[in-house]
Fold this protein.
Amino acid sequence: MIETLSTTEDLPWGERFANWNELTSRAVLPTRARCHDEAGFQASALVLGSGTLQISTGTSWSSYSAARTQKLIRQSDPERYLLGVVRSGRPRFSQGNHDARLSADDLIVLDSSQPFTSHHEPGKLETLILPKALLPLPAAQVAPLLAQRLPGNTGIGAVLARCLQEIACTDSRYRGADIIRLLDTALELLAALLAHELQSPHALSPESQQHSLLARVQSFIHQHLADPDLSPATVAHAHHISLRRLQQVLATAGTTPAALIRRKRLQQCQRALLDPGHGGCTIRTIAARWGFTSHAHFTRLFHATHGSSPSEYRASHGSLLRTPTSPPHD
């Protein structure tokens, strides 16, 4: 798996911007960049992924602009799409006849084979980098959506944005193989989002539709774990499918709706029991926080999963909940 961290922090002041432009041109796409304060330029980028799909998380503390010119395209065109997810800042992109000023949670797609310009203020941008050949939509269908603001806070766009945020998270909770699988899921979600924006859901293959629905279901369950009324029936209803169809979708992931809800809730409770920030919370409170309405039922499930009761589990990991300045919790 690819994992590359680039930063201007350790570079000589006079060489920071030039080095940054060279690094990003290699990692993402060759562009011609400009900055009013090249000596004081500050930025960092983390690239994760495989030789096929990558995600770049770029954070800039300086303003700059970049252009993908016809000359650069003639010199080298990797034939890629770039999906940008704005996390902070107000970047602006232009390609073809389209021009978009974006805000946090907005999405945008660019084509490496056509000239474009961008202006970046201080902020954070995640970029999914993918070969155009991998997207199961013809370039002619994608073209009307280039450099258009796409919603990243509702519907499929929100699921896609959350998926990319999980991949880009730097707390190392995912292994390399997990990141590769999540990138594949992000690709399927991107195809579903573009098809939806084009009002052409049937442009996707049945397999792509299946992967997209599975990702949406998993994300919905994760977001509603704290709701005690969350059930297979409410999940199916939220996605306008039958309970049988929901069971079929999750069977492809080797689980059932009820088992997935139960497992995710238990995982959240386990984390809370190990979290020093929850050291003062009772086990009953933690269980209720994650949707368990019966304390006895939660205790039985936890014991069956971890081989000990919640209180025994917390006690056996008590050292994780203590600090030198705080007394042990009972």
